[in-house]
Amino acid sequence: MLFGPHVAVLRSFAESHLTGGPDDALILLKLEHSLRVFDNAGHILDAEGVKGRMADLARLAALYHDMGRFPQYARYRTFNDRDSANHARLGVLALRGMEMPPGLSGHDWRIVRFAVAQHNAKSLNPALPARLELPVTVVRDADKLDIIRILLDHFEGNGEPSQAVIHRLDDAPDLYSEEIYDAIINGRTGDYRHMRYANDFKLLLMGWLDGLRYRSSLDMALERNYPARLLAQLPNDARIRRLGDAALSRISSCA
User: Which of 42, 123, 137, 195 has the smallest number of CB atoms closer than 10 Å to its CB?
Assistant: First the structure.
């Protein structure tokens, strides 16, 4: 499949939301993120030896997974779904309303849109049909890997600081929420609704590492030193050290 025309569609759609103001940096951040998720998905599929039509559709879903972010920010001036609208649903609506490059059937596009719709779900429906599992799980892994990169750049001071990146959470250096801590140390997925502090986001990302579906995804996270870098950004107290030991043990057992 030729992906160039689809990259051009994404780029054109994203750039149509530029206004010439300071917030353009956030639109461009999401465009760069989409392209990196597309690349991550390709790396996962290649490393896992997955080829064919479903691999192509998984890559397309990765490319288009955040289409809803551009109208979301233009309309609401936030990337926080709780304060605006579900960006996955906005992305599906955008894809339905656009003229897309030829070559895909209506059935193909339904698979792409389904993966877009599911990419930000807290957890997957256990009854997910096997034929849809690949595009959904590849997109989710590829997305999480790049979100961790973006947040680490923010926390380490390597990226453009923006409260929009951390959903305007309180950046108190020593505080984190008990609900998030309890979920992560017990190997569960943290809930966005319980996040109050920037450290909660860091804990949430530690939990994401536990939940990566593919060995190649975990290998990418380890090659980029994500676990140690996340732990270095959290308070150096006994409870966080215990959480780090538990998380690293689970990750190592999967590697």
Answer: 123
